[in-house]
Design a protein that fits this description.
The chain is α/β, with parallel strands linked by helices. Among the domains are: 13-219 and 365-393, Rossmann fold, CATH 3.40.50.10540; 255-314, no CATH class; 625-733, formyl-coa transferase, domain 3 (2-Layer Sandwich). Helices cover 35% and strands 13% of the residues. It is built from 29 helices and 24 strands. Strand 7 and strand 8 (249-253) form a beta hairpin. Helix 5 crosses helix 7, helix 13 crosses helix 19 and helix 18 crosses helix 20 (598-605). The longest helix has 24 residues, at 176-199. It is globular, with a radius of gyration of 26 Å. Keywords: Transferase. Residues 356-395 are annotated as: Disordered. InterPro entries: CoA-transferase_III_domain (IPR050483), CoA-Trfase_fam_III (IPR003673), CoA-Trfase_III_dom3_sf (IPR044855), CoA-Trfase_III_dom_1_sf (IPR023606).
Length: 808
């Protein structure tokens, strides 16, 4: 009988010294991959053990459902930081481990001997992953912050125009930045591991949550502004139709192109709205006819609206929440939600599926201190150098030598392969002249501009360091070229709808015949099976279907789509799945299929909704700019006009602790608040939130945003200006950390490009080493490498199989 294959991270030991969602999700990702994660807590336990977003009572000795989800498959150890013997035990665990994940928030992690720099000095073999709001260096490194204020600093609250312009901007609900930071921290830990395998010494992985927010909540706005001298959007608006009320629930319909708008007009029986020569913008016209659109939807059931929109190839989805999502046919058919192994409530399955399946089912979360006595340290592996230095010597890029065929487009897929390209892989971005990457076409550059398809800031920002080859694989000659290219690549990543590659003869089994050890990452919207298999899946559709939209917006209005999260979230989760597949191949020589559905990744970071409803019967709902953690938490208008002449200037204030409340009272001159016993805890402040909001509104209104930030941050209160996205680069923290690098593009010009939200010690090279490729720029180089002659390449170009400009 053949033994079952081990999980990819079997034998990899991680010490979890984190607190909160970000660190817990990072270490959950590692534990799901087979790592031995030892959660070390002070005697009072991680605050997540008593957490419930709905306020459900957690009995003494029990754990909150979210903790039970996030701590699955981990072991639990308790250590009192003031007890020398207990502290020595923590040091013994660190000495025998491979990695440690650290964040502030517990007495243990904040002990002087267990700060990241001290751990790194004492244990140079360790990967030390530190997750902090702003990063470990820079002028803001010690500033107080919450997920809410980080959204404001990132530009993600105003985003790409989200929200009712008659009201304050609205944050994205669900603490999404914490989840995204955890996903990036897991990726950084596993990337650092590659350097350790090569050298025997560890790395410091410095994760900035602000930089995660910038990458995932905005759409490369600084590059856009630099290259086109205008912001992506200058005003906020409600997308129409967007989320609308049908007869039996909420449904979302999105028009990302003019053709989809024309099809929508035909679908609702108003072809007279279609006038290609009408000078009025589609978004403006949609606003004018919105009442009739909403009336048409209101007369129909959600299922009927979705069926009609699908028939017209218009992106659509039901808007799910924690109560409804588990009953949706796609997720029921795929077994997306599974019982928690300890407490029985429903929770999301893994965000990716590997074939062969080497991950197994999660094990129960540990009770507080459950393994304190039984947890034994293991001996250090023989290849580990006891005399290893601090590991800060410049190292080769971690993916140097890896060749990747990038069959992706738009944002989700390219964001995954961009991580590989920035970290050293040779990434060959496959397009065709008939279907260039869609991000080349959506920047609003007029077709009268010379080589307009090369001027998109979005394509430029997503594809640095890549090579471009154009092959029409709908032709037989194109398919022959593609077979040769697959044979020459280690990894294939694609994000077409499932039928595209399969109809062309390039499903996973076909790829395996060409290259037996190939790793194929497929990123469908809804998965490779199920009734929604072939549905179109733009970012906002994924947000609607997963529950991310449900928690965003004001409670007296329909929710609004985040409009950004679905794509980059899918990209980083697919990257994590790919890292596991690479480790499996390193150990076994075997290739792997990674099915990383966009919606599964989104469901994981929105999973608290299902968990709370299943465990406690509580339906989490949107609450404008308030939230479950801080009180007060809201946006307050300042005295300035915004740069567009409007009154859209705001600050974000979030009080997360009683100490911060006292500091706020002192800074705004309200001793009556400070002395009011009813306001001394978060529950009391939440009861009187309206009253506090009124006082803070009056205090903020005559002041500028800079004045408010200076006064409150100095006092120790989390505060931020609500930045327009293209102004995020003006924060001194991002500049000090070198988050932006300048890139010169031969057609688009010179601009600043965001990098990664991770800093690796010893990384001496820039992330952006070459501009994004011109269309078909590397055709000759790549095809010559496949053995084609100059005459053969010229013939392919003459026949339109390859090319360097769009076909139409």
């Amino acid at each position: 009988m053949t033994a079952a294959p081990e999980p990819p991270l079997s034998g990899y030991t991680v010490i979890d010294l984190s607190a909160g969602i970000a660190g817990a999700y990072c270490t959950k990702t590692l534990a799901d991959g087979g790592a031995d994660v030892i959660k070390v807590e002070p005697p009072e336990g991680d605050a997540l053990r008593s957490w419930s977003a709905s306020g459900a009572e957690i009995p003494p000795g029990a754990d909150g459902a979210l903790f039970s989800f996030l701590a699955g498959s981990k072991r639990g150890v308790v250590a009192e930081p003031d007890d020398p013997a207990a502290l020595e035990r923590v040091h013994s665990l660190l000495a025998s481990a491979d990695a440690v994940v650290w964040s502030r928030g517990s007495r243990l992690a904040e002990h002087a001997a267990l700060l990241p720099e001290e751990i790194r000095r004492a244990y140079p073999h360790l990967t030390v992953t530190a997750i902090t709001p702003f990063g470990l260096d820079g002028p803001w490194k010690d500033f107080p912050a919450t997920e809410f204020t980080l959204q404001a600093w990132s530009g993600g609250m105003i985003g790409i125009g989200r929200g009712d312009p008659e009201r304050a901007p609205v944050h994205i609900g669900g603490q999404v930045g914490d989840w995204l930071s955890g996903a990036y921290a897991a990726a950084g830990t596993l990337v650092s591991r590659l350097a350790t395998l090569a050298s025997g010494s560890g790395r410091l992985v410095d994760v900035s949550m602000l930089e995660v927010h910038v990458l995932c909540l905005t759409y490369y706005p600084v590059t856009f502004f630099d290259l086109l001298d205008r912001p992506f959007r200058s005003v906020r608006s409600l997308f129409v139709p967007g989320v609308a009320a049908a007869r039996d629930g909420l449904v979302a319909i999105g028009c990302a192109t003019a053709q989809q708008w024309f099809d929508l007009c035909a679908m609702v029986g108003h072809p007279e709205w279609i006038d290609p020569d009408e000078p009025i913008a589609i978004t403006e016209l949609a606003g004018e006819v919105a009442p009739e659109l909403y009336a048409w939807i209101a007369e129909r059931d959600v299922e009927d609206v979705c069926e009609a929109a699908t028939a017209f190839r218009i992106p659509n989805a039901p808007v799910s929440n924690g109560s409804s999502i588990t009953g949706m046919d796609q997720f029921a058919a795929r077994g997306t939600f599974r019982p928690n192994p300890r407490d029985g409530f429903l929770q999301p399955g893994l965000p990716y599926r590997l074939s062969p399946d080497v991950l197994g089912d999660p094990e129960p979360a540990p009770r507080l201190g459950e393994h304190t006595d039984s947890c034994r340290v293991r001996s250090r592996p023989e290849n580990r150098d006891e005399q290893a230095g601090p590991g800060d010597e410049p190292a080769a890029l971690p993916f140097a030598g890896l060749r990747v065929l990038d069959m992706t487009a738009f944002w989700a897929g390219p964001s995954c392969t961009h991580l590989l390209a920035m970290l050293g892989a040779e990434v060959i971005h496959l397009e065709s002249t008939g279907r260039p990457d869609g991000t080349r076409l959506i920047a609003g550059v007029p077709a009268t501009e010379d080589r307009w398809w090369e001027r998109s800031p979005i394509f430029a920002a997503l594809n640095t360091n890549k090579k471009s080859v154009t092959i029409d694989f709908q032709t037989e000659r194109g398919r022959e070229l593609l077979r040769g290219l697959i044979a020459d690549c280690d990894v294939v990543v694609e994000n077409y709808t499932p039928r595209v590659l399969e109809q062309a003869g390039f499903g996973y089994e076909a790829v395996k015949e060409i290259r037996p050890d190939a790793i194929v990452v497929r990123m469908p919207g809804f998965g490779l099976d199920g009734p929604w298999r072939d549905a179109g899946a733009l970012a906002y559709v994924i947000e609607d279907a997963s529950g991310l939209t449900w928690l965003t917006g004001h409670p007296d209005q329909n929710p609004v789509e985040p409009y950004t999260l679905g794509d980059p979230n899918a990209g980083v989760h697919a990257f994590n799945g790919l890292l596991l597949a690479l480790e499996h191949r390193r150990r076994t020589g075997e290739g792997m299929l990674v099915e990383s559905a966009m919606v599964d990744a989104a469901i994981n970071i929105a999973g608290e909704q299902v968990i709370e409803h299943s465990a406690y019967g509580a339906l989490l709902t949107r609450d404008g700019n308030r939230g479950p953690v801080s009180a007060p938490q809201n946006l307050y208008r300042t005295s300035e006009q915004d740069e567009f002449g409007g009154r859209d200037s705001w600050v974000a204030i979030a009080v997360a602790t009683d100490e911060q409340w006292q500091a706020l009272c002192g800074a705004v001159g309200r001793p009556d608040w400070a002395e009011d016993a009813a306001l001394s805890d978060v529950a009391g402040r939440r009861e009187r939130h309206d009253e506090i909001d009124d006082g803070l509104e009056k205090w903020c209104l005559p002041r500028t945003g800079d004045e408010i930030v200076e006064l409150l941050s100095t006092a120790g209160v989390p505060v931020a200006k609500v930045l327009f996205p293209h102004r995020q680069s003006e924060t001194s923290q991002l500049g000090a950390r070198g988050f932006y690098e300048t890139v010169e593009h031969p057609v688009a010009g010179t601009g600043r490009y965001s990098t990664l939200p991770l800093r690796f010690s010893g990384a001496a090279v820039p992330y952006h080493r070459r501009h994004a490729p011109l269309l078909g720029e590397h055709n000759t180089e790549i095809l010559t490498g496949l053995g084609l002659s100059e005459d053969e390449i010229a013939s392919l170009a003459a026949d339109g199989v390859i090319g360097d400009r769009p076909a139409s």
